[in-house]
Design brief:
heterotrimer; A alpha/beta (572); B mainly alpha (176); C alpha/beta (278); A: 572 residues; alpha/beta; Pyruvate-ferredoxin Oxidoreductase, domain 3; Rossmann fold; 3 domains; seven-stranded mixed β-sheet; 24 strands; 20% strand; B: 176 residues; mainly alpha; 5 helices; elongated
């Protein structure tokens, strides 16, 4: 019995089979037992009843990327499962559990060399009053993965709490039946024992982490217009903002949403909205206004497949260009990108702190993969970054909203403060804030807004820089986890690779990047775009002191650690 | 809401045949739409049931067409066979569909359609003045009664599902 | 609009594509699709001369399910796109499809100006009092106490009256339908398409997944007690008192449709260049 650092399982089903709920329960059971995990979903185009697959990777250490291949694949049924072919990689090492009444396994299974064992889940479920095939599947999975029935029953009982005791009993019976049926199935993989820890375990999605990070950073107003895959951020904020005395307002569209948060922030309440590519496009004009008027706001963009309406349910990194270069005129602002589900919390909190401190808009580029994946991890530590806006309190004399100061940040008068009356404006303005078309004022304010960002000490959080060695993998966002894993595997090949993943994309950090790339002889850029946006951004802002190769691919398929490892190994 | 206000006027035998034909044709179309829905939503058992029902209705439609002989029943139906709200045998049945529906539900849906058709033809028998129309309507009543019986027999094969038949633990998917 | 005097024998099936809708079984929009195809057949429109323009949302998926030309555009802007299309191609029949989210929320501003401008087109809003595609947020026609994840306890903001707004903004034809009565809806759609200028048809179309309570609409809708009026003041009074369930054509106006002159001209470019000659 091999004790492995990580095991991956996928469960496929359609039309009410409850495949996703089954995998979610496994994640919860694993988390309670002390393991880490990452649960991703992939679904057909229907709103309900569609084909669905839950993909789960469990490990001893934090999980930030999907596996190259799945160890166990259970097909509750195979209806339209061919759609998932490219995403659920199986091979000769994979065990596939198939229901003979569930339809034909798709080509990806048949051609993979995987071991297929048939279990009549549907019939077994029918033999139990109120029984459901996914509970049979849950029992099978539990046995094979080394869980006890009790461990997986706890999350199920929680989910069925308001459905009555009959439903709960039926589920338990189903789990037991599946557990029993798996007794004869050979599966020689087991997760290595979890690392003992006293830290509290959490289960949350990237979107939830983003929302919590916003509140920790001081956000107390949110404007909401729903859009896939960002809506969950807003739906989490709705009741939770209210609990702490904040407010969420549903807007009629994204144009309204961005202007609402500017209004809130102008009035002194830190504000945020969340959207995706199409919504960010609508918000661009008002982001320019916030930049010019020096009003802090946070806009989370949970990136999805583009361009235009694109692939709303899949991940891609194609909004980099518009986030950094999208504003008309010269309008430097903050752009940040979290690197994992857990990092969504830190980065959003930090973005809020930076926006408030520097009085500028911050765009947080999350993506669908992080946003809608659920992770089992340790409770993220509290960090000290809380919005620290420089507010004008005792005002005497002429108040200059945009006074030229040493660090470029001027005191902001909040409405209600006597003597501080001013009119915020998108028109080019003087120190006092009054409109001007003069060359000196225009230049002075452009310098101010650029320098306040450029000269700020962002510290070490600007990027993750890990490892040494003369090959650097430069990547960002959700690919960071896969890059880290690839670097780890390369090390066992004798290749020393370092990973540099900026968390702060704008303003650029030339000195810090130079230090991070000290001694590098090869640079591998990895990104999930068609147009090499990240590579072009690096070339625009940074000296890359060594030959560069770019491994890029657009969505919808994630880039795996195995692929990055191969790219590293092939470049000697 | 008047029970008869939405029904097509049947003044002749050809009128009756045209309306009866249209009822069948609309049912064929409805069942195929439902079968397509079941196919898209991964309910293969129901795909078969709805395709079978469509085929059965199509056969009835062809029988009626044959009864009409040379008369252009299709064109005539298009002109006169219009049901208003609440009266068409094929109205609103589709709103009781569900992606997890069971054979029992499909048969209930079919049964309600057959019963409505039956009620309509009974009303023709009762109100028609032309004896030929009356006679044909009576035949159609017999035919529909047989259909109703058939559905009842089929229903005996499929028990009413338990309360949790529509239970889907997984959340809905947002596609845009 | 190209309607033959004796319409060729098109059947509703001629207007259906073979793309299978992703709408949930039980969705009112299946009936709306039936009504579209029946209305087009009634009018004998050539499928290639009809364009169905939509935005984003469940209702907006409809163009691909028809055999006509279609445009599945961005969220809330279908009316603007349709206006650009129709004024340059007045020969086409333009039908715009939207929902209460796409049409009344993000599309609200364009709604107002489309009514005002009165370009000849038909605007169909499938109203289910909810945002279906994004899983159940309130729309501008949702009841104020309707509880959702995004608005716990309800928005506390009352719905507005789209038909009144349409009237006030200049819409030339205003009707309300119920999807469950596909034939009556088809008749209204045909009348709306025939009527010159901006025709607005709201279709109550229940959402089986996020508003199962809307099954009750079947018993709440009723035919409007009074025939359509062309008197704006009368219509305004009726619509302000309307409870949202009166079915039928409620207003028919007499405005001239907006259609800028275009086409052949006997001026060529050299004539324009005279401006620059010394």
């Amino acid at each position: 019995m091999a004790a492995l650092p990580s095991i991956s399982i996928a469960i496929v089903g359609s039309g009410g089979a409850g495949a996703l709920t089954t995998v979610d329960c496994l994640l919860e059971a694993a988390s309670a037992a002390g393991w880490h995990g990452l649960f991703t979903r992939t679904m057909g185009p229907q709103i309900r009843g569609g084909e669905a697959a839950g993909l789960l990777r469990l490990a001893v250490h934090p999980v930030e990327s999907l596996p190259d291949q799945f160890d166990l694949l259970i097909g509750i049924d195979w209806l339209n499962a061919h759609r998932f072919g490219a995403e659920i990689k199986v091979g000769p090492q994979t065990l596939v559990i198939s229901d003979p009444r569930g339809g034909e396994p798709p080509p990806m299974v048949k051609q993979s060399g995987a071991r297929v064992i048939e279990v009549p889940m549907k019939d077994m479920a029918k033999a139990i009053p109120g029984g459901r095939p996914n509970m049979i599947a849950l029992g099978i999975a539990s046995r094979l993965m080394g869980f006890t029935i009790e461990q997986v029953f706890v999350p199920i009982e929680k989910r069925l709490a308001d459905k009555g005791s009959a439903a709960i009993e039926a589920s338990l019976a189903g789990i037991k039946a599946g557990f029993g049926a798996a007794a004869d199935i050979e599966f020689d993989k087991r997760l290595a024992k979890p690392v003992p820890s006293t830290a509290r375990r959490w289960l949350l999605s990237g979107n939830e982490a983003t929302a919590l990070g916003a509140l920790r950073g001081g956000i107390r107003f949110a404007a909401a217009y729903p859009i896939t895959p960002a809506t969950e951020i807003l739906e989490w904020l709705a009741p939770n903002l209210a609990k702490i005395g904040g407010t969420l307002l549903q807007a009629e569209d994204e144009l309204a949403a961005i202007n609402m948060i500017i209004g809130s922030s102008y009035g002194g309440t830190p504000a945020l909205t969340a959207t995706s590519g199409p919504g960010l496009s609508l918000m661009i004009e008002a982001l320019g206004l916030a930049t010019s008027a020096e009003i802090p706001v946070v806009v989370v963009d949970v990136m999805r497949g583009g361009p235009s309406t694109g692939i709303p349910t899949k991940s891609e990194q194609g909004d980099l260009n518009i986030a950094i270069f999208g504003l008309h005129g010269d309008a430097p602002h903050l752009v940040l990108a979290p690197q994992s589900v857990g990092d969504c919390l830190f980065t959003t909190q930090w973005a809020t702190y930076l926006a408030e401190t520097l009085q500028a808009p911050a765009i947080v580029l999350s993506d669908q993969f992080m946003g809608q994946s659920r992770a089992a991890l340790e409770r993220p530590a509290d960090v000290a970054f809380i919005g620290a806006r420089a507010i004008a309190t005792e005002i005497s004399g002429v108040y200059k909203r945009h006074a030229l100061t040493a660090n470029g940040v001027s005191l902001m008068a909040i409405p209600g403060t006597r003597g501080g009356q001013y009119t915020a404006d998108g028109l080019t303005h003087s120190e006092r804030g009054t409109p001007t078309s003069g060359a000196d004022d225009h230049l002075a304010q452009l310098d101010k807004r650029r320098d306040k960002l450029d000269h700020f000490n962002f510290g070490d959080h600007w990027a993750s820089v890990e490892g040494a060695g003369d090959l650097a993998v430069i990547t960002w966002g959700s690919l960071t986890g896969a890059a880290r894993e690839a670097a780890g595997r390369a090390k066992t090949d004798g290749i020393d690779a370092r990973v540099v993943a900026p968390r702060l994309l704008a303003p650029a950090r030339p000195e810090q990047m130079m230090a991070a790339l000290e001694g590098v002889k090869r640079i591998l850029v990895v990104e999930q775009t068609h147009g090499r946006q990240f590579h072009k951004y690096l070339r625009a802002h940074y000296d890359l002191p060594a030959p560069v190769r770019v491994f890029h691919r657009p969505g919808p398929l994630p880039i795996t650690a195995g692929e990055i490892h191969r790219a590293i190994a092939e470049w000697r | 809401m008047s029970k008869t206000s939405g029904n097509p006027k049947v003044a002749s035998l050809n009128d009756l045949l045209a309306v009866a034909y249209q009822i069948e044709i609309d049912a064929v179309d409805r069942y195929h739409v439902l079968a397509d829905q079941m196919e898209t939503h991964n309910n293969p058992e129901l795909v078969k049931i709805f395709r079978d029902l469509a085929r059965a209705e199509g056969i009835h439609g062809e029988e009626i067409r044959r009864l009409a002989g040379d008369f252009d029943i299709v064109g005539h139906a298009r002109k006169i066979a219009r049901f208003g709200r609440g009266e068409s045998p094929e109205e609103a049945d589709m709103s009781s569909a569900h992606y997890m529906m069971t054979p029992w539900h499909a048969l209930q849906l079919s049964l309600s359609g057959e019963k409505r058709a039956l009620a309509y033809f009974i009303s023709i028998v009762e109100t028609a003045r032309d004896p030929k129309v009356k006679a044909m309507a009576a035949e159609l009543v017999l035919e529909e009664t047989e259909h109703v019986d058939l559905v009842h027999r089929l229903l005996r094969r499929y028990p009413q599902p338990d309360q949790g038949w529509a239970e889907d633990l997984d959340p809905a998917a947002s596609q845009e | 609009m190209n309607i033959a005097v004796t319409p060729p024998a098109y059947t509703p099936a001629d207007y259906k594509s073979d793309v299978k809708p992703i709408w949930c079984p039980g969705c009112g929009d299946y009936h709306v699709l039936m009504s579209f195809t029946r209305a087009f057949a009634q009018l004998g429109l050539m499928p290639e001369e009809v364009v169905v323009v939509s935005g984003i949302g469940c209702s907006s998926r409809i163009p691909a399910y028809t055999n006509c030309y279609g445009f599945h555009g961005v969220h809330g802007r279908s009316l603007a796109l349709a206006a650009g299309l129709k004024v340059t191609r007045p020969d086409l029949t333009v039908v715009v499809a939207s929902g209460d989210g796409d049409g009344y929320s993000i599309g609200g501003n364009h709604f107002l100006h489309a009514c005002r401008r009165n370009v000849d087109m038909t605007y169909v809003v499938m109203d289910n009092h909810i945002y279906g595609m994004t899983k159940g947020q309130p729309s501008p026609t949702t009841e104020p106490e309707f509880d959702t994840a995004l608005t716990p306890g309800g928005t506390k903001v009352p719905p507005f009256h789209p038909l009144v707004v349409a009237l006030a903004s200049g819409a030339n034809f205003i009707a309300r339908c119920y999807s469950g009565d596909a034939n009556a809806t088809a008749d209204v759609l045909a009348a709306a398409i025939r009527h010159p200028g901006f025709s607005f048809v709201e279709i109550l179309s229940p959402c089986v997944t996020f508003r199962p309570d809307e099954k009750a609409w079947k018993d709440l809708v009723r035919p409007a007690a009074v025939a359509a009026t062309s008197d704006q003041a009368k219509a305004a009074r009726r619509l302000m008192a309307d409870d949202g369930f009166n079915i039928g054509i409620l207003y028919r106006g007499n405005r001239t449709p907006f259609q800028p002159a275009s086409g052949a001209s006997d001026i060529d470019l050299s004539a324009l260049e005279k401006d620059f000659e010394l």
